[in-house]
Amino acid sequence: MKKPLAGALFAVLLLGAVSAPAHAATSRDTASPGTVKASASSGHTLGAAGAGTAVKVRPKAIGFAGTVALSNCSGSVVRTPDSQPGDPALVLSNGHCLESGFPGPGEVVFNKPSTRSFTLLNASGSSIGTVRASKVAYGTMTDTDISVYQLTSTYAQIESNYGIKALELNTAHPVQGTAITVASGYWKRTYSCNVDGFVHRLKEGEWTWKDSVRYTSACQTIGGTSGSPVIDNATGKVVAVNNTGNEDGQQCTDNNPCEVDENGQVTVHQGINYAQETYGIVPCIGAGNVFDLDREGCALPKP
Q1: What is the pTM of this model?
Q2: What is the CATH classification number for the domain harbouring 143?
Q3: So what's the pLDDT on residue 180?
């Protein structure tokens, strides 16, 4: 996965490695190289939007308002369409960015106390304040790679104190060909490309993710961009969360995810990066921004 960065010195060194994916810096890259040649699966052409899906729209200017920097990753303040101004705000990032380390396969972190702090950014990427978590409302690396923190501040307080509105989670499945921006609060850098297609199963080391988003090749995300919101340029809504990419062309190893189709065929795309869809989070959040994994339509893994 696009792993979290281990520290400022490593971050400076990694900045020069622009082609590296957005994983966190760890020592897990020990598997032997894979032998599968890169080839397009699901009939999609890498680096190009799907035929017949392009729609001319005037894109919104995507900046950093609502994004945050974690100690090792990126994230964003998010809300559902039903979230209220007085609700405790939520921060979205990756499961592999949790301060407690990578959740194991099948592990779910639910309502765990946390005092983690996040640096809030304005539209230009300037740091304007700090918000703090009260708990990890939800986190996992099973089926998806997400963490959602509940903050001690409400949306109204954040807007009053900093002039920042939360980014809204889209409620529908992403669409192939959509123009997107990956906005990294850690690096204060954006990456623009398109949704190239969707991956039935994305396997990396011990973990397997379902229905992942594959970017076109223009989004060359790097370490520290883990957890960045993937924003639909036309609507400004969050459609996914950036999480991984194949660095070395290896097959299904840490930092080298492979695609597995419905028939079990394995495909490797070296240098291509991926995200996890976020529309499935929305049905799991009820009144007061409380996670309820028994709500109708909620399919997130349970503890």
Answers
A1: 0.84
A2: 2.40.10
A3: 98
